[in-house]
Amino acid sequence: MSNENSRMYYEGGQTPFSMSALTDSGDHITYNSQAARFSEYEGSAPDIRPDGVLNGAVISAAISGTDDLIDLTAFTAMQAGVNRSVSASLDETITRAATDVSSISSVTLTSAQAIAVIQGTDGTDATFSETRGDPGGAPLIPVGSIELGQIRLTTNVAGPITDDDIFQVPGTHLEKSLFPVVTVKNSAGTVEFSSALPLIHTGAITKAIYGKYAEPIFLEQPFSNDFVPSEITHSGSSEQYYSSVRGSSTSSLSRGSFTADLNDGITDDILTHVNKNLWFKYQQDEFKTPYVLTQGKLGIARTLELLKSQKQQ
Question: Whose CB among 9, 39, 108, 158 lies 3.0–4.6 Å from 214's, allowing a Cys bridge?
């Protein structure tokens, strides 16, 4: 129950964080920021930028027809939080194994925005390994680089690279910025991928995830009461059939609200944030830890009266 120790706060400002790397929580799915939660205030919403190709970067056999060469179309990629535009590259050399065994070469974009082909360890036979760094497997990619595709060969005899030698499946041979799908968790200040990111970089780590975001600063709204948190509500319906009844349910999110006795209803700071997406924090007791957080657009319904000083005259 609310009492004189209850407090109501609203997002009155933001602490910005410049573009920087997020930290792997250890499951390679959830990545942590430096913020306790993300603001969605206009101009401060999180901008999350995983490393990887955005579009283009199609590998093909060299147009020149020369043995052991590939071409690469122009592409754009997100790298270290920056949108890179990379020109097409022609006649990149693929090095074959010394004997007729499996060999995988990774085509990469380096942290210096150059195309580099990295050869994996030669296999012991014609069988490929899907374990990075193993004989017959793809190499680990330098930290900060982006894998664009793989060339898989089983012969040391020079010849043109064919379509069957080129592999560019997202998440397996090709790092895409927007794959797997990422979800921003505002309340936790984290981002979460739909599946674990592969450990394909030196040191068995994932690609880098960068982000620019802001953390809300809470200001107390004095003379407030009647806080109603936003809740998920459910409704059900049913239909009678000859032998049974079938039911269904729907869910909706209710609007949160609170009442505040403003200073004059015109110059109060909270009014500068009307129609903005804010965080709101309610503490039932300011001397205890528990609190309720809710986020949404601020709407108001004012009743303007005489100022208190005028009422007393």
Answer: 39
